[in-house]
Amino acid sequence: MKSDKSSKTAVIIVAAGRGERAGQSQGPKQYRSLGPKPMLWHTVIAFRQNGNVGHIQIVIHPDDDDLYKDCALNSDKLLPPVNGGATRQDSVAAGLDAIDSLSPDNVLIHDAARPMVSSDLIDRVIEGLATNPAVLPAVAIADTLKRGNSDQEVVETIPRENLFAAQTPQGFHYRPLLAAHRKAQSVDLHNFTDDSALAEWAGMTVQLVDGSTDNTKITTVDDLRKAHMTMSQATVGLPDVRVGHGYDTHQWVDGDSVWLCGLEVPHTHRLSGHSDADVGLHALTDALLAAIADGDIGSHFPPSDAKWKDARSDQFLKHAISRVENAGGTVTHMDVTLICEAPKIGPHRDAMREAISAISGVSVNRISVKATTNERIGFVGREEGMVAVATATVVMGML
How far apart are alpha carbons 221 and 319 in whole angstroms? Predict the structure, then answer.
């Protein structure tokens, strides 16, 4: 649906949050990948493609300029981003001030973390503004609600009739909402969690319209995984399956045992390295990081850092597993090949698989360890060093 309302309706997308519950190690959630594109890209595209939307104002965190540029957003509707404040309310106020010169009739306020908003939902909100000063998309509560106390005991069952879960985009007549925000600022109120609550406080009547169960807000790592699978299947028709490759080699030196795949194996030599030189776990760590395009073991655990001298390599593998999970992935298979003339790996193979399983949390039936010699060829054949190669399979968004 297209109309002349587009020049009268602006959208503010709030993208200044930190998203702690979705994990911080991969950066703010609004810049995480969903399918081939960042979450924020999907959110913006929904409004860019709607004919009733004229301008899009994104509010970002002051530290996120580079992340925003990497999204490669491009639209004649898109205004230069502005920086948000300490609270969501402050960020919305910054967005409202930024579009003041446009003097739109209506403004929609939308969370960047709701990338699956539909064009129909956007239209319903805009249509509601024809006869209402404020419009809230919402979904009726289907679950029975309980109130608990500090001891996690149920103290009350709350009737769910006429209870709704609020969503975004929330729509408003622009000038009354701007006035409400400025009024709240003048009395130092900054704790409104959404704009419909602020509008109610300011005396505006808020009209409900049908939301959508698909218009979920991505808050946790599990939410991110579900959205990742949905976006991947929608954009390419297939699950997002990735395979990473890892390689490591270390030199033999005098010793009486060697760490291989998380297991200490008696031997006439040990492997030389800054850490315990576990070539198997090092190769696996690199394979996992490669699957999510997250650098390599050296960038996460630089050998120049004395902190990692003689460190056990199980912590490297745990770290890589955590990075995969925070990126919305699930490790479905790992394979290690150890290449050496000695020691014999066969007697220790199952124990190594069990060790990797215990470290990673991946079922042992999804872990393969095998070995081969180098037929007395090259530095491995001369028993000067040992090599490990590994692959890791990661499915993004799989629960």
Answer: 16
Sequence-ordered list of residues with C-beta below 8 angstroms from that of 377, at least 6 positions apart, any chain? none
CA terminus-to-terminus distance, the chain: 36
Token pair, residue 120, equals: 């129909």
Evaluate if pTM is beyond 0.85: no
Q: What is the CATH number of the domain that holds 8?
A: 3.90.550.10
Last residue of a domain, one of 208, 236, 264: 236
> What's the angle, vertex CA 94, arms to CA 164 and CA 121, rounded to 5?
35
> What is the total residue count of the chain?
399
Q: Over the stretch 258-286, which tens digit does the pLDDT of each residue have?
A: 999 999 999 999 999 989 999 999 999 99
Please state at what angle helix 279-291 crosses helix 314-326, rounded to 10 degrees: 10
Q: What span, in angstroms and rounded, lies between the C-alpha atoms of 396 and 241?
A: 6
Amino acid of residue 55: H
Q: What domain range is 280 assigned to? A: 240-396
At a CB cut-off of 8 Å and minimum separation 6, what does 339 contact?
371, 372, 373, 374, 380, 386, 387, 388, 389
The count of structural domains within the chain is: 2
229 and 107 in a common domain: yes
Per the CB < 8 A criterion, the answer to whether 119 and 50 are in contact is yes
